[in-house]
């Protein structure tokens, strides 16, 4: 199996191989030569008893000897055996890999729940510690089944408004792909959608500490905010009116000097409809507006088209701005 790399085995296990790659794996598993030693420097095998895994796989994939009278059926039997034994080998890999993941996962994340607010909906939930979270459209929050005795850690993709229950002995942290927000007890908002380059944090009450991937950090207090960009530059604290950034909880849609591209992304999440800007010249035009009481899309589009001097087409499948 000298041509079978750990990466190829992992692709095969995940069902991502091309037909040629799958055939190569099948050929190797049906062959007569013992497999090469498993490497020490690959994530798939980290923490695994590689010798035991290798012996177990080889024991199950080695084709059994056939009686002489069945020589003329050797090839079909080998092919059939290979298919069955590949499945067995994949099962062994899965068991070892699962054991590795369980052993390598911090206790706070070993058993977790994923809460998703689909596009067009918002969710309010209470965490085990009493913290209240409002999830905006198109957002995902991953939380442990139970917080540890020393920390409360959640993972966010999207936008959330949090009213953190005070617990001085267990700091509360929100982790995104680019930032870490740490608090003891406060009210704040984090926006970190994966399709947006920046992450923003605003504070309504209390204090939060924001750290980015470059190692910079700032302390925010009431009506302060920060925008984290993937450019490695120091973070700059800004004065904001935090309530404007969290008005979506009450069905109020606010745009403050947003580009049409940014407006389109918000509308797509809020109303669960694909938005296409057909005229690229207007994509950078700026828009400011405020809509209350869970506004209908038609209401927003009427104001948007008037202010931006653009046209739109709306059907069941998508919204086109031009």
From TrEMBL:
<dbReference type="Pfam" id="PF04773">
    <property type="entry name" value="FecR"/>
</dbReference>
<dbReference type="GO" id="GO:0016989">
    <property type="term" value="F:sigma factor antagonist activity"/>
</dbReference>
<dbReference type="InterPro" id="IPR032508">
    <property type="entry name" value="FecR_C"/>
</dbReference>
<dbReference type="InterPro" id="IPR012373">
    <property type="entry name" value="Ferrdict_sens_TM"/>
</dbReference>
<feature type="domain" description="Protein FecR C-terminal">
    <location>
        <begin position="253"/>
        <end position="320"/>
    </location>
</feature>
<dbReference type="Pfam" id="PF16344">
    <property type="entry name" value="FecR_C"/>
</dbReference>
<feature type="domain" description="FecR protein">
    <location>
        <begin position="115"/>
        <end position="209"/>
    </location>
</feature>
<protein>
    <submittedName>
        <fullName>FecR domain-containing protein</fullName>
    </submittedName>
</protein>
<dbReference type="InterPro" id="IPR006860">
    <property type="entry name" value="FecR"/>
</dbReference>
């Amino acid at each position: 199996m000298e041509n079978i790399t750990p990466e190829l085995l992992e692709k095969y296990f995940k069902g991502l191989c091309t037909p040629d790659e799958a055939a190569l794996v099948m050929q190797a598993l049906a062959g007569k030569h013992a497999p090469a030693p498993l490497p020490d420097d690959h994530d798939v095998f980290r923490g695994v008893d590689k010798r035991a895994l290798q012996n177990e796989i080889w024991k199950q994939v080695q084709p059994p000897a056939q009686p002489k009278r069945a020589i003329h059926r050797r090839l079909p039997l080998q092919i059939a055996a290979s298919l069955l034994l590949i499945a067995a080998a994949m099962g062994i890999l899965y068991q070892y890999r699962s054991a590795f993941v369980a052993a390598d996962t911090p206790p706070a994340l070993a058993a977790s729940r994923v809460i998703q607010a689909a596009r067009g909906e918002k969710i309010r939930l209470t965490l085990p510690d009493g913290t209240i979270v409002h999830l905006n459209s198109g957002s995902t929050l991953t939380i442990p089944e139970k917080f540890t005795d020393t920390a409360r850690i959640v993972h966010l993709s999207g936008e959330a408004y949090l009213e953190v229950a005070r617990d001085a002995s267990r700091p509360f942290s929100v982790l995104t792909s680019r930032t870490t927000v740490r608090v003891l007890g406060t009210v704040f908002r984090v926006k970190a959608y994966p399709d947006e380059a920046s992450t923003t944090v605003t504070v309504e009450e209390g204090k939060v500490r924001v750290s980015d991937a470059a190692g910079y950090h700032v302390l925010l207090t009431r009506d302060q905010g920060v925008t984290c960009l993937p450019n490695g530059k120091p973070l700059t604290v800004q004065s904001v009116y935090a309530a404007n950034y969290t008005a979506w909880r009450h069905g109020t849609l606010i745009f403050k000097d947003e580009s049409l591209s940014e407006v389109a992304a918000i509308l797509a999440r809020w109303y669960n409809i694909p938005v296409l800007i057909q005229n690229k010249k207007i994509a950078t035009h700026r828009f400011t507006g405020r809509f209350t009481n869970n506004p209908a899309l038609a209401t927003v589009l009427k104001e948007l088209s008037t202010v931006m001097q653009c046209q739109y087409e709306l059907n069941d499948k998508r919204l086109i701005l031009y």
